[in-house]
Design goal:
198 residues, 8 strands, 3-stranded mixed sheet, single chain, 3-stranded parallel sheet, globular, alpha/beta
Length: 198
């Protein structure tokens, strides 16, 4: 089990608000603003709020025994932490509609084929693979990673003109940073760059 989501007993007793934080919403994470990418390592079932935690992450490493679902309709609830709009963005409207309206889970292999999962690995290896992916990202310049992430996320809702302006603004900021000089110098000198994040 990755996460079964919210405590249904708390919801039934009227304490649903206790499951949210002011800063991040459900689980303190579903709507948390951040620059740094987050990778989740899933090795089991991620359902309801657990699936919404996965959907709020940037990258997903899952094992072949994992599955993903929004089962709220089976309890006369709806996915209230972003699942209803993030799942269609991640896997397409048709597949998301079926999963949401039936409450049936999506297998890891299907989630991988639909684009929800970045890397599919054997059981017991998700954390190691997630750490390897994080290490690979850490080789890149942090300012460029943060700026690129911002534009990629905006691509889900912004029009091309807005995205062009956003890209140009991010590009200008990156070009004026110390890390750009370091990245270009390291390339010319054939050495690994020493990123400063400024």
């Amino acid at each position: 089990m990755f996460s079964a989501g919210a405590d249904l007993k708390a919801i039934n007793s009227g304490n649903a608000a206790a499951l949210n934080t002011a800063k991040g919403g459900f689980a303190g994470f579903a709507y948390r603003e951040r620059n740094k990418p987050v990778i989740v390592a899933v090795d089991g079932l991620a359902t309801a709020g657990g699936c919404e935690i996965v959907l709020a992450a940037d990258l997903v490493v899952a094992t072949t025994r994992s599955s993903f679902g929004l089962a709220e309709v089976k309890r006369n609830l709806i996915a209230g932490a972003g699942g209803l709009f993030r799942l269609p963005r991640a896997i397409g409207q048709a597949a998301a509609m079926e999963a949401i309206l039936t409450g049936e889970p999506i297998t890891a292999e299907r989630a991988y084929n639909l684009g929800l999962v970045n890397r599919l690995v054997e059981p017991g290896t998700a954390v190691d693979e997630a750490l390897a992916l994080a290490a690979k990202i850490c080789e890149s310049a942090p300012l460029a990673v943060w700026a690129s992430r911002k534009v990629v996320l905006a691509a889900a809702y912004a029009d091309d003109d807005t995205l062009k302006k956003m890209t140009n603004a991010q590009f200008a900021t990156i070009m004026s940073s110390e890390d750009t000089k370091e990245g270009l110098t390291a390339f010319i000198e054939k050495r690994p760059p020493n990123w400063k994040g400024r």
